[in-house]
Records
---
Amino acid sequence: MKGRLREPSVSLLEDAGLGPEQPGERALAFPCRNAPVDVLLVRAADIPEYVQDGVVDCGITGQDLVAERGARVEELLELGFGSCRLEVAVPEESRYDRLGDLAGASVATVYPSLTRRLMPVEVDLVDVTGSVEIAPRLGLADAIVDLVSSGNTLRTNGLRSLGPLFSSQAVLIGRDGADTARLASMMRAVVEARAHRYLMFNAEEAKLAEVCRIIGSDSPSVLPLAAPGMVAVHALVPSAEVWRLLPELSEAGASSILVVPVERMAR
Ligand code: AMP
């Protein structure tokens, strides 16, 4: 993992206790702290083949690249970063409105295999090696198939999306038969932890059923407080729910609400 997946990948290794032996290591290969693991930093696009061919036992790359290369590797774990979609886009002023309208149209992409497989109609593929989004303006193609995350690049280039073909995020992949279970479980504990927060608050015991419903848990930890009729409630909640939970809990009379990050989590 080099390029845009590099920083989040190294930070995942660090959080899993597998950061470089020398902190701040910038080399293309480094041994890890705490485990007999050597990390190689190579292009995300090369990783599916490296893993398939046994150059390395596992790798971090995009699901888009694994699928495009058709690599015979095992997807061990979705990593929760590097999210993007492979989308079909046309110039703003184009007459095309739906994917189905593109039958026979020319489509520029660096994802010929996925495009051929996932487009609902036959198209003429125009192979390009980069800067796909300017192909329509150069008259090279009627449409493009390219990765989109925020949509800003499409807008800047006067393009509009006709819809997604494929959703992708970074994944840990392993060679069939390689001994990857330990590494995968160390990373899983961090990925799961990042997706959760530990929530603590005080509430009236009489409101317990209501706050359990709000936090979506039947059996949070409930501890008696010194004040009669009051309890402390502790629960793991999805990180994405926190913004909704806090005002609802306050509304239900909860107080001293604390939200703390979780470092590792094994179910
Ligand atoms: P790289 O070319 O090494 O910077 O990494 C490209 C990979 O990053 C892609 O194959 C995707 O899996 C992922 N990615 C996530 N968001 C985007 C995006 N907006 N554009 C391109 N690649 C993205």
---
Amino acid sequence: MAVKQNNCAICAGTFDPPSFGHINIIERALKVFDCITIAIALDNAKGCLFSFEERKAVFSEIFKDEPRVKIDSFRGLLVEYARQKGINVLVRGIRTVADYEYELQMSLANRMLNSNIETIFIMTEGRYSHISSSIVKQIIKLGGSGRDMIHPCVEEKLKEKLFPKSK
Ligand code: COA
């Protein structure tokens, strides 16, 4: 069987901030795809703590030795962004049954919008199944350690934001 030339996929998300759960999904997706575009969603009703530049900077640090990872941003419909990039595979991580229901709905909606789009699901590593960006922020805010949840560069940045040094 011929190998597809453009065997790339998109990992989209808010990533506010990226956790080991997200990184694990991206690393495992790299075993299946030749390249991964991390697409940081800029439209977010929740409002983000990290700017796009900050999220890009932490991903660049984490994947500095992985040239197959590209970091980009998008606004509007994910399927439209994927079409513009010529990529038709979306990779999503599933942590829980609740994630499954949400992801099923999103993947069906995306296929209704563009039937060329396929969503590939990767089951989250058990040790990361309880992690979300909000939980990480809460733990750091309350003085807990992010050691098992986030990269040290993310923890440093998060602490800078949550506990700004007075000048
Ligand atoms: N590991 C750890 N955490 C994970 C995770 C994983 N594998 N997968 C999801 N999460 C967390 C996120 O950190 C986030 O935590 P938070 O709510 O505490 O911030 C939560 O799960 C859900 O994130 P959410 O922001 O709802 O979604 P997302 O970050 O997974 O991204 C988009 C969703 C941006 C891809 C999706 O909304 C989208 O495509 N938007 C564009 C508009 C569009 O096309 N809409 C139609 C789609 S049907």
---
Amino acid sequence: MDSILINGGKPLKGNIRISGAKNASLPIMAASLLTDQVLELTNLPILSDIDTMEELLAHLGAKVFRIKENNDSLTLKISCDNMNNHQAPYEIVRKMRASIWVLGPLLAKYGKAVVSLPGGCAIGARQVDLHIAVLEAMGASITISEGYIHANSKTRLKACSFLFPGVSVGATINGILAASLADGTTHLSNCAMEPEIKDLCICLVKMGVIIEGIGTNDLKITGQKTLTGAKHNILPDRIEAGTYMIAGAITKGDITISGIDYEIVENVAQKLMQAGVLVTNMGDNIRVKYNGELKSVDMATHPYPGFSTDLQAQFMSLMTLADSSSVITENIFENRFMHVPELCRMGANISVDGNHAVVRGVGNLSGAEVMASDLRASVSLVLAGLAAKGSTKVRRVYHLDRGYQALEQKLSACGADIARIKGDSV
Ligand code: UD1
């Protein structure tokens, strides 16, 4: 397994171009199952999670063609005209929870889906009851046995009115995908409103689905008997952008993030500005410049447009170096503070009480060997390492490869001293 070695203390200066959004790419790739025609996707990020979704679709019988791959992005053409398998096996689902997004499309198109339960993960139990409830409301019969979700529908799925009792990105996506082929107009309320869900809806509209309320929490989806192919360019990754914005601040740097709309990272920009960092919306670019101070700021995670749980760990790294105390509250997952002990090994002063972490700013972090439990925790340790005095080794880099395209290259182009050590650790 690879490690990442960082010699910290160098302010980042330069430009970072943002890749396509992983969390939009994966459900949109799953949407290819809804049509017999070709779905062509551009601006996909080059990440192991994309490979895993490609593997899953191919396992189900899809033909996936890699049309173009360069340093920036990947273009895929996916054709699901001759599917021969409706089962997503544990060996693939365990690698990536997003595999559960084949459940809605397979059920809606073929009346049958068998998908492994993803199980818990490092950050929490991560239930699937809402995914199941919305599909049952459309007439599916669903049982769980031997670790698998077995979903069946003898007839075409029927439109329904469904109020999500809690906001769920994953369940909203499965509901939208299934409703796209259901008979009638499905009304989904209290939906998640993440920009990646909006991007999925835009792609589905190109495929022939009629959707009202795109970008809101109240969606009316008129399903079609058949859907067409489409071409779709994936929107940029706001979590990658937010991570690099925080990297600029934590290294006392001056960087420009390009290829992303300010609007979808505005909540991060606001927190950084409250902390005293200069953030300038320059149209196509966002400039993040350290301005001689770093103030402690409280932060709580919420569904979009709130501050993303996927940026909580990175923001905590920043707050370890702020001038007084801040309280960071994690409202989405019950166990998403796994980075805390690792940050403390680097000299941070953080105490956790339930879903609150009290972060008392320290003058410096010091480099250490650290190991992370999940994708965003890993990158928070990279950020801490960039700011720390001395050398930091981050183990288990495979987590990073799931969500950050060319991380070392993007950071070293801005002056970071960062390198990958191949086959270094277990
Ligand atoms: C969540 C985040 C998403 C992030 C992703 C990976 C939110 C709202 N969602 O999406 O931004 O990119 O993790 O870190 O911030 N839940 C249930 N039953 C279900 C589904 C979910 O109880 O069937 C609960 C979850 O346990 C969690 C909350 O609802 O507490 C939100 O979960 P959900 O949005 O579905 O999780 P992801 O889709 O993984």
---
Amino acid sequence: MSSVVLDKVTKVYPGGHLAVDRMSLKAEDGEFLVLLGPSGCGKSTLLRMIAGLEEVTAGDLWLDGKLANHLPPRERDVAMVFQNGALYPHRTVRGNIAFPLEIAKEDPAMVRERVTELSKALHIDETLERRPGTLSGGQRQRVAMGRAIVRQPKLFLMDEPLSNLDAGMRTELRMEISSLVRSLGVTTVYVTHDQVEALTLADRIAIMNRGVLQDVGTPAQIYNDPATAFVAAFLNSQQLNLLSATVRTPQNEYVMLDFGPHRLTLPWSDPRAYAISQHTGNQVLVGMRPDGLAPVPESYDGPSFFGRVRALEYHGHEWLAYVECGAPGAEVPEPPDPRLAAALDPAEAGGLGGMVRKLFGKAVAPPQREAHEQHGGGHRRTDLIVRLGVRPAWRVGDPAKVAVDLTRLMVFSQEGARIDANRRPV
Ligand code: ADP
């Protein structure tokens, strides 16, 4: 078993591309840590730095309490599984799994026993004498997994190992990875862009965007209490409702989120009221998941929105309603691009920007303008997406009253930072 500690780990690729920006994170002994984020956010780069396949530009990497920045890969005792677990085509399944033990000149009887045992756990014991070319994609990934596990490394690193498989196989193998890795108790860092994989597999999730850590916590912490609007929107199987509101505190009696035609109020006794009131007079972003909204009768006088049903969508296990309610929608703010900050912030002159310039003799290209700037702060009217049960309570064109579960409300600053919860800083 082993722990992994990243202390402001940074990767700048030749040419000046900042792929990982001062990541600080710990994977505890025996923990299953998932690195989640959109494609290109730096997950694989981080994993490859942990494996020793990519040099760390700045910051410290500690493996099992030892500074490992310059430790050769073979001395790290890590096993890696990739998207396309490349197998030796001329070796049988048995030969592939046994390979790391044969190289280590282990006792052949022990190797045979270990491979047989592992192949049973991976449900490939029937294929042991076949060659990889005759196996399905799922079976090949199982063999790759077996080869990684067989010598019981201190650390497993997995880079999207399921993404080339079809949906059914993904679900099956996902469950098996989870139980196998947990039964072995080996610390695992697992990269994926798939939120379902992350939520179902992880002890904790570290979510990244543009090379920057956005949030870290258990799946439930991150889902129920996301640190930023980006995290709330990313961890959402249905689209997040994100509206723009102005904070008001009329006569200091309560805190109000003013959406124009709609208002939600929080009494001062609400633990979030004070933090939100600090933004009085300012615009904030309010996030609501479709399952935090529900259809209610016209007579309902609790916190609610009203509108008209514009469309209904059937999803098999549920219906979603799109309710036109005239509330101002907002784009999910992208976190500031670290490349821009590094290139332009004078306070960083001796820091990262300075380092990038020193390394490559030039400033980094400024990024594209942010989407929310292009949309003028996002004041177009938007539909509210409401989760209905298996039988829709509404028809298209119906007037609709939508109850809001205030406990599920998420309030963010214009920049997307959570302001209504005591989130620990990441
Ligand atoms: P992810 O795994 O999240 O999809 P990567 O770590 O592969 O992201 O890439 C992060 C960023 O670094 C991307 O913009 C990618 O284009 C860039 N990148 C990756 N590898 C290299 C490389 N060898 N040289 C230059 N840029 C790279």
